[in-house]
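Deliverable D2.4 — example input (structure tokens):
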């Protein structure tokens, strides 16, 4: 198997490594990097649908944008089935846990709007049934392009395959609300290539998704982050010195960690409109550390590139662990080198007493972090849970150099705009 250097040898940049040594520094329950406990009596956005990954409308520079005073978010969404015989258990009760766990297979993109940056009202589906080419509409990013209200929705078309796609539409506002019009023609952009990014043929558990386009604040060029795995047949990856890092004696054994091969991918647009893309080598790899670095995104602050990505306990490799939550890395230039924030990478994790309380964190340039509620224990032992499928309380972090600190908590789903665009 090729080492990283061979695989990305001719590339203009080498991926930065999140090493096993870095991950050994991850500690759950450090109050500066732990999300406050979410109470089990949380309100739900809707009794009809579950929502999870939340994608605020923004511009290409990363600013969360309202239109004519309306805040807009997109969410991955699936119907709840409280009355569907398929989800009624042998005692006649609605098995909400199973319904929730099945949601990925029927994920659709919906949008919501609000005057207050919270108290979201359901707008509806973004694309009509039949428009998206695959069964699942997975995460991405809605971009407000101009004052005419044109919106490019980048997202992932999954099953069969996993293709990064985009669909253009328009946001229209009235005094009473917001609607999304158009969104009728989905354009495939690219798929994993098997050379830099792992394909389904190389690994049936591959990940290739979650596009996050942005304009580089330094050169103005259009790029896109995405989630991937490092190319190569499953099991063939090497966890060598570089991937292990500087570990203490007794920590050299990497177990089966070669199966964990996450990376943060990057592509550059060949055109102005972002219709034609070239994949570049990953910005960051986590071979031997973790199998998923999902929904990667940036905050540009103090002339630095703060790269955030979400990950799970269950996707960590043998011998390393950490909470579900958002991890971060910082560099002085786009192509790195990136170093883990707080030494370890952990920025905001779930408390160990409520390990699944939230997920899919998105750090916004104003330091606010939105996420969704997954499940919260309702008894001491943690065996009884309440399923969320709704917005979590927003948390504020302060980013200072290579460190981050939790500093405040706000209302459920509080996503205030950073700019307002008056539509023409
Ligand atoms: C994160 C995530 C994304 C994916 C979606 C699928 O919560 O796993 O990476 O696009 O959920 O439901």
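Example output (designed residues):
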């Amino acid at each position: 198997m090729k080492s990283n250097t061979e695989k990305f040898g001719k590339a203009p940049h080498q991926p930065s490594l999140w090493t096993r040594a870095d991950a050994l520094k991850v500690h759950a329950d450090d109050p500066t990097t732990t999300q406050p406990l979410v109470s089990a009596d949380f309100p739900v956005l809707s009794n009809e649908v579950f929502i999870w990954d939340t994608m605020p409308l923004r511009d290409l520079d990363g600013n969360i944008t309202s239109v004519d005073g309306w805040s807009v978010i997109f969410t991955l969404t699936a119907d709840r089935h409280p009355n569907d015989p398929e989800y009624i258990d042998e005692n006649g009760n609605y098995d909400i846990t199973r319904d929730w766990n099945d949601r990925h297979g029927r994920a659709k993109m919906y949008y919501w709007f609000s005057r207050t940056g919270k108290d979201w009202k359901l707008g509806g589906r973004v694309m009509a049934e039949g428009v998206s080419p695959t069964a699942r509409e997975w995460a991405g990013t809605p971009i407000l392009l101009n004052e005419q209200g044109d919106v490019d929705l980048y997202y992932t078309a999954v099953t069969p395959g996993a293709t990064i796609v985009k669909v253009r539409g328009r946001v229209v506002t009235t005094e009473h609300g917001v609607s999304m019009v158009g969104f009728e023609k989905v354009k495939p952009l690219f798929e994993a290539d098997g050379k830099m990014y792992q394909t389904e043929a190389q690994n049936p558990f591959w990940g290739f998704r979650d596009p996050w386009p942005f304009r580089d604040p330094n050169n103005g060029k259009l790029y896109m982050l995405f989630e991937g795995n490092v190319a190569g047949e499953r099991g063939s990856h090497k966890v060598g010195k570089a991937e292990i890092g500087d570990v203490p004696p007794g920590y050299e054994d990497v177990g089966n960690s070669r199966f964990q091969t996450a990376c943060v991918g990057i592509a550059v647009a060949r055109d102005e409109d972002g219709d034609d893309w070239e994949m570049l080598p990953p910005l960051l790899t986590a071979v031997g550390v973790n199998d998923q670095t999902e929904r990667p995104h940036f905050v540009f602050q103090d002339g630095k590139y703060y790269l955030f990505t979400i990950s799970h306990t269950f996707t960590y490799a043998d011998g390393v662990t950490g909470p579900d939550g958002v991890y971060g890395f910082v560099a002085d230039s786009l192509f790195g080198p990136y170093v883990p924030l707080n030494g370890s990478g952990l920025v905001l994790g779930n408390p160990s007493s409520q390990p699944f309380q939230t997920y899919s964190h998105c750090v916004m340039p104003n330091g606010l972090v939105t996420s969704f509620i997954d499940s919260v224990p309702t008894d001491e032992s943690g065996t009884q849970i309440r399923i969320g499928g709704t917005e979590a309380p927003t948390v504020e972090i302060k980013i200072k150099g290579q460190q981050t600190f939790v500093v405040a908590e706000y209302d459920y789903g509080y996503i205030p705009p950073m700019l307002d665009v008056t539509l023409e």
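Residues 52-53, 76, 104, 107, 138-139, 156, 209-210, 227, 294-295, 359-360 surround beta-D-fructofuranose (CB under 6 Å).
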